[in-house]
Specification:
- The complex is a heterodimer of chains A (about 450) and B (about 220).
- Chain A has helices spanning about 40-50, 85-95, 100-115, 130-145, 160-175, 210-220, 275-285, 305-310, 330-340, 345-355, 370-385, 400-415, 430-435, and strands at about 1-10, 15-25, 30-35, 60-65, 70-75, 150-155, 180-185, 195-205, 205-210, 240-250, 250-260, 265-270, 290-295, 300, 315, 390, 420-425, 435-440, 445-450.
- Chain A has about 450 residues and is α/β, with parallel strands linked by helices.
- In chain A, the strands form 4 sheets. In chain A, strands 5-6-7-3-8-9 form a 6-stranded mixed sheet, with helices on both faces.
- In chain A, helix 3 crosses helix 4 and helix 9 (about 330-340) runs parallel beside helix 11 (about 370-385).
- Chain A is globular, with a radius of gyration of 23 Å.
- Chain B folds into 2 domains: about 5-95 and about 190-215, no CATH class; about 110-175, no CATH class.
- In chain B, helix 1 (about 5-20) runs antiparallel to helix 5 (about 75-95), helix 1 (about 5-20) runs parallel beside helix 9 (about 195-215) and helix 4 (about 55-70) runs antiparallel to helix 5 (about 75-95).
- Chain B is built from 9 helices and no strands.
- By secondary structure, chain B is an all-alpha fold.
- The longest helix of chain B is centred in the middle third of the chain and has 30 residues, at about 115-145.
- Chain B is flat.
- The chains are: A alpha/beta (about 450), B mainly alpha (about 220).
Chain lengths: ~450, ~220
């Protein structure tokens, strides 16, 4: 049983993230926390886990009573989850912490890795795993630890539809085995049947528990439109790939590819977890080597200086913190402004307000919520104003409204200016607003298709 | 041989040769270490690096002593070989055990506090990440039109910020996987510490003493 009573919490004095919040979670229940970006969902999960206030912030009123014995947590960013070098070592570390003996541990590892289909990943270095693969390992460890309380903070953000469905089924099974599950997610699909309680974050004072009727209405949202795309008919490409091959270790990700990307359009890039989408972006930004040739405006990119090239072809990283160079939000904006005069100060102030970042100017960038970081990151790259912008999961941690605002901004400042976007996303909202074309990466080959995201799973 | 014992052996011998100048002892260490490394199939490239990298320091050491007092040419050779003795003895540990094995062994065989062991290990696992991070910061800068050279303070300022952030993330990650400070842990991955290991350890030290002090 978990009881939260009149709880208030803040990171900085006088600006509470949560205020007088009360809620109860019963054993063997499945709870979904839902609410806009930055409303305190992740904070609440970490409070339940006891990571806060131990690692930051303070509880100003109220308390949490937690009678679960063992909890385990899957973080929003899988890179923050692991201490060891390989999944196998991480298993051993976790199970030694629980004081298991060798026989029990081996049994649990083999069961959990089979359950989550991670047997082949056990001896791989974490650095070589894709985001979705890491999340499968994260869940495998939680299963092996046999925690009675499982906390998940947007665990599927970097998962393809197949992995998402796979992991959700595993969670449901855990619940049937008697575990208690608390999860945050912006994507509601798949939850209706298994979810016992929905906690709707209205604002920092108010979290509503939905009754059965409200729950039904809540889940009964129109199905996402089945997207359809055109096949490119343009004649002049901005990027071309000639006999392009890409490898990761000894695994071939893309083989002998010839392809053209066209300017002035958004292109959606989809493919299963681990298929090589992020690696393709790394090749395009000259971070990893490849075979064959990539040209940008008819010029071989290996012959252009990286410094010069990257001002033309830039990227919004999957991990938002990678984009930041300064300490506070204000400093980041100031730095960007000093390097580019694409927008006037008045325009930027307006963007900040639109993205609800205007109250956060003095905050340290690392202390922003996952979604707020994403918004700031996108704004910074809009100011930088490259000719081609690569976006790797730009909508992670964002609520529907924020996604809509950002999509509009991206359309106005890139596509309407004849600039080019290439977007990796597993989120289907608003992609039709941004993308005309759809490239999928399947069986080591990239191909333009007309169907939407759901067709691939 | 058990990783920790190997480390202790190398530490003791290195300490001894740094106090007692003995050319023969140094040469015997170098030769035995090379044989040990070859037996463990060290790559020729690594072996060459082990010889090439300290060469400059060794020559500098030799010439400075030799030029200062040409009569002490033997002493100059002692210092020259001592550097190589350190390097090869160290290589016997680093080239044949991973940091993970060593850390496990120190925790499990010699009861080093787990907090220290996993803290160090986590820090080691962060190394490749730091390297990646520095390049990533440079790239992030270039994408916004800011060029950060390798000696730019801003590059390192941000790298340090990122590292501080990691330290916090690491502890949270460890906690989320059941780690609690000062709580007992079980041993799943055993690192054997056998009688044979102890025997070899004592034998090598015993044989080495007369070589060092009597030759």
């Amino acid at each position: 049983m978990l009881k939260i009573n009149q709880l208030s919490f803040n990171y900085q004095k006088d600006s509470n993230i949560l205020e007088n919040i009360s809620l109860q979670i019963f054993p063997n229940s499945f709870s979904l926390l839902y609410g806009p970006t930055g409303c305190g969902k992740s904070t609440l999960l970490k409070l339940i886990a006891g990571l806060y206030p131990k690692f930051g912030g303070q509880i100003t009123t109220g308390k949490i009573q937690n009678s679960f014995k063992q909890w385990g947590m899957v973080f929003q960013n899988p890179d923050k989850q692991f201490t060891m070098q390989t999944p196998y070592q991480e298993f051993i570390f976790s199970l030694e912490n629980l004081q298991l003996d060798e026989k029990q541990a081996k049994k649990r590892i083999s069961l959990a890795s089979r359950e989550t289909n991670t047997q082949d990943l056990l001896e791989r270095d974490f650095i070589t795993l894709s985001g979705g693969e890491k999340q499968r390992v994260a869940l495998a460890i939680i299963i092996a630890m046999d925690c009675d309380l499982v906390l998940l903070d947007e665990p599927f953000a970097s998962c393809d539809p197949y992995n998402r469905k796979f992991l959700l089924e595993k969670l449901f099974k855990l619940k049937q085995e008697g575990k208690t599950i608390i999860i945050t997610d912006h994507n509601l699909s798949g939850y209706q049947e298994m979810c016992d309680q929905v906690f709707l974050f209205k604002n920092k004072h108010r979290i509503d528990v939905l009754n059965n009727k409200a729950k039904e209405e809540f889940f009964h949202q129109p199905a996402p439109p089945q997207l359809s795309f055109q096949l490119p008919k343009d004649s002049k490409p901005i990027l071309t790939f000639e006999n392009f091959s890409l490898k990761q270790g000894d695994k071939t990700l893309i083989a002998n590819q010839n392809l053209q990307i066209f300017p002035g359009h958004g292109t959606l890039l989809s493919g299963a977890n681990g298929s090589g989408k992020t690696s393709l972006f790394k090749a395009l930004t000259k971070l990893i080597s490849y075979q064959g040739k990539i040209t940008y405006q008819q010029q071989d990119i290996s012959k252009i200086r990286r410094r010069k090239y990257l001002t033309q072809v830039a990227q919004v990283f999957q991990n938002a913190s990678d984009q930041f160079l300064m300490v506070t939000v204000k400093e980041e904006i100031k730095l960007s402004q000093s390097l580019s005069n694409r927008f006037s100060t008045a325009e930027i102030t307006n963007f900040l307000k639109l993205l609800q970042l205007d109250q956060l100017l003095d905050h340290v960038v690392y202390s922003l919520s996952g979604g707020q970081k994403k918004k700031l990151q996108l704004l910074l790259m809009m100011i930088a104003n490259p000719n081609i912008l690569l976006l790797d999961e730009p909508f992670t941690g964002l609520d529907k409204q924020s996604i809509h605002i950002i999509s509009n901004l991206l359309r106005e400042s890139f596509l309407d200016q004849e600039k080019t976007l290439i977007i990796i996303s597993h989120q289907s909202d608003d992609l039709d607003l941004l993308c005309d074309y759809h490239l999928t990466l399947k069986d080591r080959h990239l191909q333009y298709i007309t169907g939407g995201l759901l067709d691939e799973s | 041989m058990n990783p920790s014992l190997k480390l202790f052996l190398v530490l003791i011998i290195s300490l001894e040769i740094s106090f007692k100048a003995n050319l023969w002892a140094n040469l015997i260490i170098i030769i035995s270490c090379i044989i040990y490394l070859l037996a463990h199939k060290i790559s020729p490239k690594n072996l060459l690096l082990l010889i090439a990298v300290p060469l400059l320091a060794a020559i500098a050491m030799f010439t400075s002593i030799y030029l200062a007092s040409p009569s002490k040419v033997i002493f100059a050779w002692v210092l020259f070989t001592r550097i190589y003795a350190f390097v090869f003895a160290g290589a016997c540990v680093t080239q044949t055990t991973t940091i993970t094995q060593l850390a496990y062994s120190l925790e499990k065989n010699f009861k080093l506090p787990s907090k220290f062991v996993y803290g160090t290990l986590a820090a080691f696992n962060v190394f490749p990440k730091i390297k990646e991070e520095v390049i990533r910061i440079q790239v992030a800068g270039e994408m916004r039109g800011l060029y950060l050279s390798f000696w730019s303070p801003r590059l390192y300022f941000k790298a340090i910020l990122a590292a501080i952030n990691w330290a916090d993330d690491l502890t949270q990650g460890m906690t989320s996987h059941g780690y609690r400070e000062n709580q007992p842990r079980s041993i799943i991955q055993k690192i054997p510490l056998t009688k044979k290991d102890w025997l070899i350890f004592v034998a090598i030290l015993t044989i080495f003493q007369p070589i060092l002090f009597l030759t």
